[in-house]
Design a protein that fits this description.
It contains 9 helices and 15 strands. By secondary structure, it is α/β, with parallel strands linked by helices. The longest helix has 17 residues. Its EC number is 3.5.3.12.
Length: 333
């Protein structure tokens, strides 16, 4: 799922830079699977549908595009898209409340997007269940076996669910997502990040027993202490069987700043796993090649596809942040 940028978003002044990134992501996805895109500008959406379906068809690719007009404040599908849970009764589509990371920006259109998609028949006979709980997809990481990884800075932020403490939030995650346990990181952040330390910028499961994470070894870097403390926490975590997790450090990219000198949240942890491949954000810095090498080792049976995401971090997110995966059979083709 991609929520396409349009001139009514904060991307307006850099559309010529950011649209090629979305096109690269879309074309990479179509090599392996179907793609759902929405856009507020109907004429652009129709053009994209024709161009991308033609791209897939002329190359004999398995993916096809479903395009739906829908209003949106921004493009961060990871956080306003539906969360899908596999149950004994089938897939549940959950529409958690989205309030732009604690009311930092406008959010009303994004919060209604899943209802628009459902109303357009995108999900066929599957209903989308509204959940009165603020939760962004980028704030949780699942091993697929009942363990969630998250950060206290994000989920305990009082601008999200102010009446809930850690125990109450864990109860909601258990009730709605089937979490048997939650591993909380109390340390770790990226400068320039608007999300209050989303886990998908910091640490990711690459197998149920294996976590990769960002790491900084430069004592002069502002992140050094916090990320060292985060690594200590990861080392202390235990699997359900009591064994420690295997840990792999991801490269630390050179600092990237915007035109105003603000540091931008470049991270290799913001990769996207799709059928047969991993889309890896790169930033035109020397560490990109090492990131490709590390990810190739983490996912040896998948193709690693680098996508230049330097324009995305201008708005303080990256590749995983602008995408949301949906299980096979959810989209009505």
């Amino acid at each position: 799922m991609l929520t396409w940028p349009h001139p009514g978003t904060d991307w307006a002044s850099v559309m010529d830079d950011v649209e090629p990134v979305f096109l690269d992501i879309a074309q990479a996805i179509l090599r392996f699977e179907n793609l759902l895109i929405s856009c507020e500008f109907v004429a652009r959406l129709q053009q994209l549908e024709r161009e991308l379906n033609n791209f897939a068809e002329t190359r004999g690719l398995p993916g096809r595009v479903v395009a739906v007009p829908a209003p949106a404040n921004d493009t961060w599908a990871r956080d306003h898209g539906p969360l899908c849970v596999d149950t004994a009764e089938g897939v549940r589509l959950l529409d958690f409340r989205f309030n732009a990371w604690g009311n930092k920006f406008s959010w009303e259109k994004d919060n209604a997007l899943n209802s628009h998609l459902a109303g357009a028949g995108v999900f066929g006979k599957l209903s989308v269940q509204a959940v009165d709980f603020v939760l962004e997809g980028g704030s949780i990481e699942s091993d697929g076996q009942g363990t969630l990884l998250t950060t206290s800075e994000c989920l305990l932020n009082p601008e999200r669910n102010p009446a809930m403490d850690r125990a109450a939030i864990e109860q909601h995650l258990s009730e709605w997502l089937g979490a048997d346990r939650v591993l909380w990181l109390d340390h770790g952040y990226l400068a320039g990040d608007d999300t209050d330390s989303h886990i998908d910028t910091l640490a990711r499961f690459c197998a149920p027993d294996h976590i990769c994470h960002v790491a900084c070894h430069d004592p002069d870097d502002e992140h050094f202490g916090a990320l060292a403390a985060m690594k200590d926490e990861l080392q202390a975590f235990r699997q359900v069987n009591g064994a420690p997790y295997r840990l792999t450090e991801l490269p630390w990219p050179d600092a990237i700043h915007d035109d105003d000198g603000q540091r931008l949240p470049a991270t290799y942890a913001n990769f996207l796993i799709i059928n047969g491949a991993v889309l890896l954000p790169v930033y035109d810095v020397p560490q990109d090649e090492e990131a490709i090498r590390v990810l190739s080792g983490l996912f040896p049976e998948r193709e690693i596809i680098p996508v230049s995401c330097r324009p995305l971090i201008e708005q303080h997110g990256s590749l995983h942040c602008v995408t949301m995966q949906l299980p096979a059979g959810v989209i009505e083709l």
